[in-house]
């Protein structure tokens, strides 16, 4: 079996996002490391819910906590071969799963990344998801309104960044043109667009101070920017900086997982968005999100069967 582990991005945070991992023994150091960064236990922050869950800094830390905590379940199952990739902030969590950064480093960098983005982003900006039109057509619509393609999910599915008021008009235009879905996302920064060029510079400085690790064996890490395997740590770290202000190609990441022979896919983190995209891109693979399971034993049993 080759297992593709996909690390969620922001947007799916919810009150029950740690229900499966909250009491998992191996996950306790992850929760403990996040507490000082959040000013509270991440499980309590999630359970309280409310607008804070979708604040940029809180959201990015929580998503990384969720991915790293769930990864401890995958490690227990000891799958034979693993390919890891992460979506947006999930790219950073993927480095932790692949053993390239210590979990504590991932969480500190998540905070620094969000702070850099918040400092660079003008108010009133965000992201919109549009599906059901050719990328070239959505690109033309976005450019005409001064917006930017931020993420390529599939040939007919993208995320666009810009001013939220303008994005609302773009969504209406896309729906009128036949789009199946066009909605504003619960993210308030124009991630992966040139509007955050200053954030890339600031985060690059934080990455330069972060110690990288050289694991022996372990998971194969794919860059969330373009799906290329990360062999050289320095080049890979630079892509972590660049992806804040450059369009990311998630479709390429899924294609790379397919080419690596992935016959099982597991999304780690809140929500099911990556699992849904993986089912379309890897139709012969067995696909689940961690939130599909009701127990840790259910996850490990499925991994043992996959």
Automatic annotation (TrEMBL):
Gene Ontology cellular-component terms for this entry are: cytosol
Q: Which domain of life is it from?
A: Bacteria
Instruction: Give the Malonyl-CoA:ACP transacylase (MAT) domain ranges.
Output: 6-302
Q: Which GO terms describe its biological process?
A: fatty acid biosynthetic process
Which UniProt keywords are listed?
Answer: Acyltransferase, Transferase
Q: Which GO terms describe its molecular function?
A: [acyl-carrier-protein] S-malonyltransferase activity
UniProt-listed SMART domains: PKS_AT
Q: What is this protein called?
A: Acyltransferase domain-containing protein
Recorded source organism is: Methylobacterium planeticum
């Amino acid at each position: 079996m080759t297992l593709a582990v996909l690390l969620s991005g922001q947007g799916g945070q919810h009150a029950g996002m740690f229900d499966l991992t909250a009491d998992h023994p191996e996950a306790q150091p992850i929760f403990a490391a996040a507490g000082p960064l959040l000013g509270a236990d991440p499980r309590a922050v999630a359970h309280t819910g409310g607008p804070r869950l979708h604040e940029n800094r809180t959201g990015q830390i929580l998503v990384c906590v969720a991915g790293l905590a769930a990864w401890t379940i995958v490690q227990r199952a000891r799958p034979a071969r693993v390919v890891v990739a992460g979506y947006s902030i999930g790219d950073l969590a993927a480095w932790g799963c692949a053993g390239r950064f210590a979990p504590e480093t991932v969480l500190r960098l998540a905070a620094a990344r969000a702070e850099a983005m918040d400092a660079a982003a003008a108010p009133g900006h965000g992201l919109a998801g549009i599906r059901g039109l050719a990328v070239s057509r959505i690109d033309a619509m976005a450019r005409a309104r001064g917006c930017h393609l931020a993420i390529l999910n599939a040939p007919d599915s993208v995320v666009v960044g810009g001013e939220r008021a303008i994005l609302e008009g773009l969504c209406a235009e896309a729906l009128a043109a036949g789009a199946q879905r066009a909605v504003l996302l619960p993210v308030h920064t124009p991630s992966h667009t040139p509007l955050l060029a200053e954030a890339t510079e600031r985060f690059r400085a934080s990455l330069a101070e972060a110690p990288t690790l050289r694991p022996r064996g372990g998971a194969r890490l794919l860059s969330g920017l373009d799906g290329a395997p990360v062999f050289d740590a320095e080049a890979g770290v630079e892509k972590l900086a660049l992806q804040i202000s450059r369009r990311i190609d998630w479709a390429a990441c899924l294609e790379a997982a397919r080419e690596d022979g992935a016959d099982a896919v597991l999304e780690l983190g809140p929500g099911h968005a990556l699992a849904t995209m993986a089912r379309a891109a890897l139709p012969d693979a067995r696909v689940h999100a961690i939130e599909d399971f009701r127990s840790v034993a259910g996850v490990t049993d499925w991994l043992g069967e996959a």
